[in-house]
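COMPLEX REQUEST
Ligand: NDP
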Amino acid sequence: MTGNADEGFRALRMVKDDGGIRAEFQTLPLSALPDADTLVQVQYSSLNYKDGLAVSGKPGVLRGYPMTPGIDLVGRVMSCESGQWQPGDAVILTGWGIGERTDGGYAQRARVRSEWLVPLPAGTTPQWAMSVGTAGFTAMLAVMALEDHGVTPDGGEVLVTGAVGGVGSTAVALLAAAGFTVTASTGRPAEADYLRSLGAAQIIGREDLPALKRPLEKERWAGVIDSVGGATLAGALASTRTHGAVAACGLAGGSDLPTSVFPFILRSVTLAGIDSVTCPMPRRRAAWERLARDLPAARLEEVTQIHPLTEVPALAQQILAGQVRGRVVIELE
Ligand code: NDP
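STATUS: Structure written out below.
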């Protein structure tokens, strides 16, 4: 299957019927794509935690069926009715509801809105863009949020939780490249060398994070990038130094937040929320430009594995089980 218009294109579809929710590989005509102004030939997508939930049929991500999952993509514009893009332009799309509310990146073609697209930064490749993907873009937004709230490289240790995951790995690499002293927390101590190679100065086990016994713990972190949530995020808040900041990105460990107001009212700690899906366009472009400039490409390549679309259902199980290291790029061509 080449994906030519007259032959149809390959897609991974989530379908729902009396037998339940399941993933199916289908060949579809262009007329099956949603209504939007820009047709994109998808070259790569990636695997994020949210994709793992969607492809495993877990509730809460896909808003309708049938649906093509895949919350990000990179590709070439084939046609654009708004005139904002020319055929052949290389574009990136993360978030805005693709792979959730409208068809996403796990297909050789996507029809999307022209205002959602970001140009592929000069000097980068499509594969690079999806090595970064939603997870890496989110990590960049988290670093920018810490900086906006006054966290600087000379301010002390910055904690990254869920460090071996996609958001975590990229956050460690970005912070280290920017000169921060990074402490990486992981439930996989065997990956300590991997984390050091990304630039972590210190590795601590999940269970060695300061436990949340009291509303305020000893001050330790100048900043925190958290992709775990739950008691981990609560413990991080309680251990953040006065005027420090915590960027909350995820819920790999739980969506609750058993905290108190004390870190906020006694230490001026800032809890910055990160939502990559609705990130406004100027910040989006700035984040991608900075990723292209600051994230060492060789380091990113080391943390990336490339798989065909057919392997996505198995990979989805692995990411939910916390077994994926770094970033997974999905090849569509
Ligand atoms: P990954 O699965 O790649 O990484 C998550 C990491 O969290 C794992 O590698 C593991 O790290 C840690 N972890 C997993 N389960 C647990 C647990 N039960 N307790 C403690 N730690 C755990 O996912 P992503 O990096 O793609 O995404 C991470 C989180 O960020 C997800 O919740 C995702 O939904 C969210 N996210 C949010 C975005 C936003 O816009 N806000 C965008 C992208 C992702 P280790 O093995 O090192 O302990």
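REMARKS: The domain at 134-273 is CATH 3.40.50.720 (Rossmann fold). The pocket of NDP is lined by residues 48-50, 134-135, 138, 162-168, 186-188, 206, 227-228, 232, 249-253, 274-277, 319, 322, 324 (CB under 6 Å).
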